[in-house]
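Subgroup meeting minutes
Present: P.N., E.W., G.H.
Scribe: E.W.

1. P.N. recapped why we're keeping a running log of single-chain structure predictions: easier to compare across weeks, and new members can see raw inputs and outputs side by side.
2. G.H. added today's entry (103 aa).
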Amino acid sequence: MIEKNKELRIDGEKLLHVLREIEYVLISLHKIGSHYAPDLPGKKSEYCAETTKFIDDGEVTGRLAKIRAILSVAFDETRGVDDLTDIERALEGLEFWRPGSAS
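Output recorded in log:
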């Protein structure tokens, strides 16, 4: 990691926005899970449908993309000897969902 990225500063208002968005997603998913938990596994299809509806209607992917943008802008994007930025290096090798995967 380059020296500039070892200690970062983020505007407090932007950071509070990030925390609000994370709280919205986290607590909403928890409430969905808690609502359906007593009836699982019998109502798993309803639980899955409600979770999907929340992700779509609540624009969760858009919210997460904005969070990523707010946090990423704080980093210096200088490339290292490996031609990667610190963010690219940290995310390298991250495994993403694919059909049939557990995560």
